[in-house]
Amino acid sequence: MKAAVYRKETGLTVEDRAVPALQPGEALIYVKLAGICGTDIHLAEGKRKDAPDALIPGHEFMGVVAEVADTAHRGLVGRRVVAEPIINCGQCPTCLRGYAHVCEHLRVRGVHVDGVFAECAVVGVNRIHLVPDGLPDRLAAAVEPLAVAVHVVRRAHPNVGDSVMVIGAGPIGLLVAQVARRAGATRTVVVEVSPGRLAIARQLGFEVLDARDPAQQDTSLGMDIVFEVSGSVPGISRAIRSVRPRGTLLVVGFFPDPPPVELAQVLLKELELRGSRVYAAGDFPAAVALLEQGAIQAESLISHVLPLSQIKAAMDLCAGGTDAMKVLLDMRA
Fold first, then answer.
1. Quick one: pLDDT at residue 219?
2. DSSP string over 9-64
3. Which residues contact 142 (CB under 8 A, 6 or more apart)?
4. pLDDT at res. 34
5. Fewer CB within 10 Å, N- or C-terminus of the chain?
6. Cα–Cα distance between 6 and 13 in angstroms, integer?
7. 214 shares a domain with 161
């Protein structure tokens, strides 16, 4: 099979790899579409120190089950599916408390073990979710990032009528904004530096702030909930300024380097400071249902679809400061 392989010494190349063998409880999936996200970019830039020296990246995808290890799961063969890429130990104190998604030994496909930037991938059957017949492949490929957004908003415990700010209008940020609106936010402000992404946020019906405009640096303060999705120092500084006293700040963006945080303001405002990592039980099914119902506009976030052979160009689109949004790899092109 063809697969994109990241090596710390040489970067990304497309190679021929053997089709992975199945272990009990696993399924072999023909990957159709796979999405590139910030984690993949950080990996390619050498910022994931926890990654092995060589692996197949990628963790968000949709495909068709080709084979299963156990006869009890034969009904999955031929079905379109998505899958959670997390692998937990099931034995640490955190897992035993029911929080498998923040397992103390958590591994993620495409970061710690081989992922889905390949023609075939192996996943555990217990992580598979069926794609409804009426849901197009392109929208099914958005289930994983939407599940992230569902979990983010659930972590915030929003109330109907809350005012919400989302800092960073990439795919995750705009999915978070849509889920927050669906959860009852009556005002949702999106902050971004990219003109193209600001335009998409505006088309989705959100109030927008241009983070480059000095005149807008201290507007829209007093928000009930602020989601920091940009993973930037200016973003976290704005988040702390913008949330109201006793409001909630969600850290969503990944910070490769430790940022300075104005903890004095966290103290003085008595802020609720929370993190959000991947997804918990129920977040994937909720994401599938939202897409099936047409409650989330995910199609407008897909900007490019490229073949696996052009993965370097696809990664450059995501990392190059362009207005590219969700870039998908078509494994069958």
1. 65
2. TTEEEEEE-PPPPP-TTEEEEEEEEEEE-HHHHHHHTT--TTS-SEE----EEEEE
3. 35, 175, 291, 298, 301, 302, 326
4. 98
5. C
6. 7
7. yes
**Same structural domain for residues 303 and 324?**
yes
For 284, the 3-state DSSP assignment is helix
Q: What is the CA radius of gyration of the chain?
A: 20
- Residues 184-215 pLDDT 10s: 999 999 999 999 999 999 999 999 999 998 88
- Whether residue 39 lies in the annotated active site: yes
> Does residue 157 have an active-site annotation?
no
Rounded to whole angstroms, how far apart are CA atoms 75 and 172?
33
pTM of the model: 0.95
| Given 10, 42, 94, 248, the catalytic residue | 42
Q: Which of 13, 39, 248, 322 is catalytic?
A: 39
Residues of the chain with pLDDT under 50: none
Domain that holds residue 319: 2-142+298-330
